[in-house]
Write a structure and sequence with these properties.
Length: 238
């Protein structure tokens, strides 16, 4: 939550600084790309970074939760935008995301520190289908909200691997999962292109955990569901 609030503050500060001190965002700005949003179809790409977490539900509430430590990863992808109405667009944003989450298990049966830690590295190909709701354009800025669903393939899932946490120190997840995605951003119209910083939350809909072969495993035996949670900061160029 602290990291999420920090991202919001950084995003807000960036947008605020982009609007002041220049002729582009002044009181009487020079209007750029006046007809850009009237295109039926437009294309672009995005770069950004992410922070992933897990939401873990337990069969029996443990004395101490599994501790999840996220790291900052990166995103890169393409944007296809279809104009439906004046304030509504349909977007397809396939992209690659890389991240790592470190899980520390607190089960009393795990004595050594290396037995308690599992590094969960993930390389995702994400296929989001989103609706973009834009406000009225003011000068060279136009805030928007975005939301929709996505389907995600995890190349590092280890779903088909026979070794598990006990027999081979392998933490296994399902290859495919589905998500809700919701976010907000601002379109900034520059002289030659449109620049759009945005923040987005990703909320997994399905249990992604592949359980160990032993139903009483200290790693997965008490987990009823494990779902992805994530925050994206993206910078889109169109």
């Amino acid at each position: 939550m602290k990291r999420f609030l920090l991202y919001i503050l950084l995003f807000t500060g960036f947008c605020s600084n982009a609007q002041i001190g220049t002729r582009i965002f002044g009181k009487d700005p020079i209007i750029h790309l006046e007809n850009f949003d009237k295109q039926r179809v437009s294309w672009g790409y995005y770069l950004g970074f992410n922070s992933y977490d897990f939401k873990i539900d337990y069969r029996i509430p443990p004395a101490v939760d599994i501790f999840v430590k996220g790291t900052t990863g990166f995103n890169v992808g393409l944007v296809g935008n279809l104009r439906l109405f004046e304030y509504l667009d349909l977007r397809f944003e396939p992209g690659l995301s890389y991240t790592q989450r470190d899980l520390t298990f607190q089960d009393a049966r795990l004595i050594e520190s290396y037995d308690k830690l599992r590094e969960v590295k993930s390389t995702y190909i994400n296929f989001p289908l989103l609706l973009k709701f834009s406000s009225v354009r003011t000068g060279n800025i136009r805030p928007f909200l975005v939301g929709g669903v996505s389907r995600t393939l995890n190349f590092d899932a280890n779903e088909k691997v026979k070794d598990d946490n006990i027999t081979g120190n392998r933490f296994r997840m399902k290859n495919w999962t589905s998500n809700w995605e919701f976010g907000a951003g601002i379109d900034i119209y520059l002289e030659y292109f449109k620049f759009s910083p945005s923040i987005r939350g990703v909320f997994g809909l399905e249990d992604e955990l592949v359980r160990d072969n032993d139903p009483n495993s200290p790693y997965t035996g008490n987990i009823s569901a494990m779902r992805t949670r994530g925050v994206f900061i993206n910078f889109t160029f169109q």
